[in-house]
Amino acid sequence: xxxxxxxxxxxxxxxxxxxxxxxxxxxxxxxxxxxxxxxxxxxxxxxxxxxxxxxxxxxxxxxxxxxxxxxxxxxxxxxxxxxxxxxxxxxxxxxxxxxxxxxxxxxxxxxxxxxxxxxxxxxxxxxxxxxxxxxxxxxxxxxxxxxxxxxxxxxxxxxxxxxxxxxxxxxxxxxxxxxxxxxxxxxxxxxxxxxxxxxxxxxxxxxxxxxx
Length: 212
Prior knowledge:
This protein has 212 residues and is mainly beta. It contains 1 helix and 12 strands; from the N terminus they run ββββββββββββα.
């Protein structure tokens, strides 16, 4: 029998909206985005297109982590930073912190995504996400990414104290022939109604970085 408090009760109903970054990123209907990564000489470039093929966001990151261990999630139209994603990994733990705007100050900290490497993690993916307001000492996550990255499918679920959680988004990977060899990966992020898609897109980028 599991001793995890999150496995002891029935799932709670999904809320009308789930805001992590900003309410303006919560659409009333389900949305889907294509997230494409291409490695260039200047860095890891991610572009995010909506279902119509319109670029809505992009990510600027660095190839050489010792030179720059952070990425910027930008609004494609205005080029304004939406989030700063910082790699704080150590030893066998992959850890990324997310901050509002172009900042890494404590007052702008939004969440941390943590993945602990183990023999089991080679086949299965489990990333725990803790909001800045989480008071559990990182024992009980607010969200969990689970599934199998290498099989190309992961689910983002919202969790809380004493509930099993409920799915809020799906992240799938489609690599074209030869695309992976060229450093090109394409993801589809399907986001449930009312869920902050900037948050899910940030998790998609973090998931890729944790596995490469």
